[in-house]
Records
---
Amino acid sequence: MLRIGVIGQSGKVDEETLRLAEEMGKEIASRKAIILTGGTNGVMEAASRGAKLAGGLVVGLLPGDESQVANEYVDIPITTGFGFDFRSMVLVHSSDAVVMIGGGVGTLVELSAAYMLHKPVIVLEPSSGWAKRVKDIAYEGLYLDHRRENYPHQLDFASTPKDAFDLILTRAKEVPSAHSTASDTSGDIYPNK
């Protein structure tokens, strides 16, 4: 089963970014994948709400030891016992692919970690924050590191949640660590059912 991490800022977020996050959550659930978020508010809550509305499974990887900090849409709250920084690493390591929606400095750290781990990374460009700016600072608009021998893969950019998930399926085929059954072109990640 494909596990998609959605990363983005907590706290106050503009309405368009929240709408995109909710639509991304719906897309993930409608494609029968599991959504993983940081489990709290902002982009994470909007993506969780979208997945829940589409009948999906929502996993929240939470900072600290208190499950009550999870947003109301989280089905499985996992307390990591870590602060936000290390919780983010658990989220990235647990994901087969990562979608960036908006984002502040914490999201930028998650993006960098996913890139270093050779995870497929999709940036939903119409959103705000670092997702809107990362292409401008990336090498050739695609790479987070100039050393192609260490990091030969690129960032991918999508303008819609559907396009983002289609890119996930394409990239998951290329990444041996991803739990991918993405060779089925129907977009259904359960080809044997």
---
Amino acid sequence: MPVTHTGESEPMKKMFHTTARIGLAIGILCLAGASTGYLTMSSFRRHAATASGTVIDMVSYHNGGDLTYAPVVTYYDKKRKRHTYISHAYATPAAYTIGEGVYVFYNPQHPEEAQLVPFNTHTGLMVLLVVGLLAGGMGIGLLYYRRSASHPQNWLLPNGRSVAVEFIKMKK
């Protein structure tokens, strides 16, 4: 197996570089997803009206053997018109109970467009952000390490001066 002047085999060098690039790509994708999700949610909520609502039912969904639940909520807009909203956030166990009061963000121009205001609003976005920072940091760190570790040898080979020495003795 050919070995480079840094002592690494070519397959190991390629695997190291590929791992760094994959980590960097995952980091970039997660950070892009987190920022897009945050901006979308923030934009909607900045222009939204709020209302108090009540969970009137739970919708169930079989997710690979697990039964997950999403709340069905009724709320009244500022014109006192009643609306029903089925959340897209399914959970096991159910995060809400029938009869529970909730807060709802809704679009004043299209009141049927709504979102619930859970206490953990940004949890998914925070997970994406942390994964993105970790994976991206790992990718950047590996690429930087790879470059800095091989830099002296890369410079010395074409620019260094050969010195003849005679080995005399080695102490323990």
---
Amino acid sequence: MEEHGGDGLERKAGPTAASGGVSSCYRGVRKRKWGRWVSEIREPGKKNRIWLGSFETPEMAAAAYDAAAFHFRGHEARLNFPELAHGLPRPVSSETDDVRTAAQEASLRFRPGARPVAEAAAAEGGGAAPSSSSSAGGPMTVRISPSQITQDSHVR
């Protein structure tokens, strides 16, 4: 059975009978029985969770969790990669879609074939704002909300 803390999903001791999932060494991450890594986080003060997505690697799922956890809990968050907290993408609001979008962007930094995370952070100046350039070598899908399109259109 899964154990849940007040700050998100806790690590599991092993596979769960209900989901067929496999434990992960990363907070907020589990492996589906068909091999995909998934991430979700509890909203503070609520019982519901925000689905952050399904990912190729556990590191991608962990980075997604970190972006959401840092947004909700700030420097008190227990992160998988605390050394990268300063460079995590920030959601424009606490709306589910905005949190998920930032989480997806954070995960792309760990995509197989992407530049090493430290190199990518250095190239982006270690800033907290999302970057419009891709650190992955090929095509990718970026999900943004209509409010982000309006807000970012004058920045370029």
---
Amino acid sequence: MSLGFGVGDVIAVSTLARSVWGRFRDSSDQFNAIQTEVAGLYLALDDIANNLSGLQATDKQVKDLSVLTEGCRGVLDDTDQFILKNEILRTEPSSLGSKTQKAWRKLKWDPATVNELRDRMVSNATFLNAFNTSLARSVSSARKLNLDISDIGCMKGSV
């Protein structure tokens, strides 16, 4: 790949997605939906990293993927900050004082923020999946082209 962007960059954002997902693992039920969206981002990024391995991407693909991964990094960073701010929402054995604090945080917790993060994740995952479909088609076409060329070579030798 060119332009200083490569599979390692995709893997870095994929690793961030997995880390954010892991932080939701023990969270309360309110966060189950967003955990699913983070998992979707992780899977899409991981698929792209696998498809890019051993492929010489075009400059346009590299630019497009750079924009897409930056969008993912942005929403994952924002989600991570939201988690840190609302860390008290994690489920764990607690005393009466921490239960009161947890209830107070829930009252102050803004579901609109979670919905906005989820919307951004769904949007990013949709774009990543579209990019991955295009990438998979390119890989398939390149493989078919290589097979066709080698078939021609075999036919020349048999003539």
